[in-house]
Every structure is written in C-alpha cells, then in structure tokens.
Design brief:
By secondary structure, the protein is an alpha/beta fold. It has eight helices and 13 strands.
Length: 293
C-alpha cells in the first residue's frame, strides 16, 4: 500500500511581519512532528511566509515588493534546515519570488526531508485584476520516493480546468493547493476542488487561511470527488492518510466503479480536435502503461 500522511494546517500568518510569521510556521511544523510523528508532509496556506494580512486590513504600501525574496536564498536555506531537522516534506504555502530582472511571482515550493528544494512552481493563474504578481508559464510535479507523484497549484489555479488536467497528465496523484481566499467565492472553489478531483481522479488538498486572514473551509477531496475532511473557519489542522493506490484503482476501474474518463481519452483523444489548444489530446505515458497492463 502506498500512503501519504499529510497535515494541512489551516492557519494564518502574523500580518506584515515576516520574522514573526516564520517563527509561527517553524513552531507549527515542529509541533506537528511532535504530536503526529507519522505525518510525512506539512502544507500551509498561500503567502503564509509572505505575511499577507486580511483583505480589508491596513496594508503597507508596496507590500509585495517589500516581502519578495530571491529563490534560492536565505528563506529557502531556513526551510531546508527545518525540513532536515524534522524529517518532513514541506509545502510552505507560497512566497513572493523576485527574479533577476525584478519580476515578482507568487511561487510555491516543495522542500524534501533531505533539506533540498524538490520543486518550485510559479502561479500560472494569478487572481487578476486584484493580484499584482506576474503569471508563471508551466506546471510542476515532484516525486516522493516509494510513495507517488505530487502536483502543485495555488488558489485561483483551481478555477481553470486546464491546471488539474495538466498536472494529472504529468502523473500527479495528489495536488497540493495552498489557498488564500477571503471572499464569498470560496463556495465555488470547493465545487472546483471536488470536480477537479473526480474528473482527473486524484486527491486535492486545498488549504485555505483561517479567519481573519481567510475564510477557512480547507478541504481534502478523494479521487472520486468525495470530501474526506473539511475545516471550519478558524485555526485547525487536518491530518489524513491518503491511499495513493486508490488513485490507481479508480483510474483503472472507474469512479464509483463506473466512470473511466482517462481510459476514454486514451482510446479516442487523438481523434478529437481541440482548436483552442491547437492540437489534439495526447495520451500520457502513465496511462499507456495502465492500458497495457
């Protein structure tokens, strides 16, 4: 059995205080290690380490520019040290990343227990016109040895079906989605989390910030679109054991033992014209192997 034990921390940073937010994050990660020693991966909400504050709060001028960091840099050094200390995979939400040309992206990271940057993902669909970060241009997955493949998405990315479809095409069995939502469209995001999970037959771990930074309601959804856990609005921790063999089962035999969209795409996808993408569907390598076995 391939399992991934996760701790999704629905929490909030100390608004506009980078050092205090780091201290809070480090304390929470160490607490998870102490209280839940079986956990393998810890994830926190979007822009936690960028110390974003409540939407209607008084925001320092040009906060994104002030909070932006280079990657790799001092922050990733700290993250790598913490991951190595605790032996945990860390998805520390996202940060404002400043590139060499001065561009700022909203970037999620995955840090391995060996203290290495395993993946870096720049949010492809920033929440425009409200979010000032520049969009990224590609999707990212990483492997947890002997467990499975994980994809990264950030908040509004989940509103675009292309995001989860591409991550699943790349072999993701779990998508970790740090989120920072303070508005009433949170209900729509939860609908998307369920639909993205079942149409792509993967787990979605959508971790929103707690009140007052966000409206909470973080959710873990299984490959058949069933909500395994959902938080309230306050600070909360969702601990779960994801059975990644369930992804294999559902993709092979169907959601509810019936629906097998990936198999259908493998059979007919190459004959379907997709003019908005300038091509047709290409069968992923992992699906070819599944169909042959």
């Amino acid at each position: 059995m391939r399992t991934l034990a996760i701790a999704a921390l629905q929490t909030a940073p100390v608004p506009y205080d980078l050092e205090a937010s780091w201290s809070r994050f480090a304390h929470q990660v160490r607490t998870v290690r102490e209280v839940f020693p079986h956990v393998q991966l810890v994830v926190v909400p979007e822009l936690f380490l960028a110390a974003e504050g409540p939407l209607l709060g008084e925001r320092p001028e040009n906060w994104m520019e002030q909070a932006a960091v280079t990657l790799p840099g001092p922050l990733t050094d700290r993250l790598c040290e913490l991951a190595a200390e605790t032996g945990l995979w860390l998805v520390p939400g996202s940060v404002f990343e400043r590139t060499d040309d001065g561009t700022v992206h909203n970037t999620a990271l995955a840090i391995s227990p060996q203290g290495e940057i395993a993946a870096r993902y720049r949010k492809v669909f920033p929440w425009q016109p409200y979010e000032g970060a520049e969009p990224g241009h590609s999707f990212t997955v990483f492997d947890i040895p002997d467990v499975g493949r994980v994809g990264l998405a950030i908040c509004y990315d989940g509103s675009f079906p292309e995001t989860m479809r591409q991550l699943a095409w790349l072999g993701a069995e779990v998508v970790v989605q740090p989120t920072l939502t303070t508005t009433r469209d949170r209900e729509m995001e939860l609908v998307c989390a369920r639909s993205n999970a079942w149409t792509n037959q993967l787990y979605v771990v959508n971790v929103n910030a707690s009140d007052p930074a966000g409206v909470g309601t973080s959710a873990i959804v299984d490959p058949e679109g069933t909500v395994r856990q959902q938080a309230g609005t306050g600070e909360e921790i969702l601990v779960d054991i994801l059975d990644l063999d369930a992804v294999t089962r559902v993709r092979r035999y169907g959601s509810a033992g019936i629906n097998r969209p990936w198999s259908q795409l493998a059979r007919y996808g190459s004959t379907i014209e997709l003019p908005m993408y300038g091509g047709t569907f290409r069968t992923p390598e992992w699906l070819k192997e599944t169909e042959e076995s």
